[in-house]
Amino acid sequence: RVKKLSAAKRERFLSEKEVAELLEVLKAREARRELSDVHADTIRLLLLTGARRGEINDLEWAEVDFDNGVVKLPPARSKTGEKTIPLNAPAIAILKRRALRNDGLAKRDRSRFVFPAPTNSKMSATGLPKAWGRVRIAAKLPGVRIHDLRHSFASFAVAKGASLALIAKVLG
């Protein structure tokens, strides 16, 4: 009849210095071909948008609205129902670069996914947790989870003066 204690929630926020180191590691590993551009760009977008891993990993081109600078997720694709994710300039630049690459492929090789699997463009990419594990070790971020990028986004937004209501809306 003893009540078990619930596990403490872990909330980790990256500092600006840690984010800079993470971005440097992404760039260096990508240049040395130790990390795919798909995984590097996925991690960058997670940090820039505060979105959940699945929302970005399985992102489809039909959900990206360049004209309005947002990603529009249907109810089935977000934990909290229909969701609009605003995109900042660096996030839009990543998506436009990926769109140009996708559009440059033969029609049969084009993917509906922003981050397609390298061997099958009909599927979204896999292997992000393993790639993240290698990246966070190289960036000296032991114990930092992919989900902590979402916390960091919120932390930076608060530091820049965004209201809690706005942040809550963006994060869903």
Quick structural summary:
By secondary structure, this protein is mostly helical. It has helices at residues 16-31, 37-49, 53-57, 89-103, 128-138, 147-159, 164-171, and strands at residues 64-65, 70-73, 83-86.
Low-pLDDT runs of 5+ residues are none
The radius of gyration is 17 Å
Distance between the termini: 37 Å
- What form results from the Cα inertia axes? globular
Strand content: 5-15%
* Secondary-structure element pattern, one letter each: HHHEEEHHHH
By helix and strand content, what is the structural category? mainly alpha
- Report mean pLDDT, rounded to a whole number: 91
Which strand order does the major sheet show?
1-2-3
How much helix, percentage-wise, in residues? Answer: 40-55%
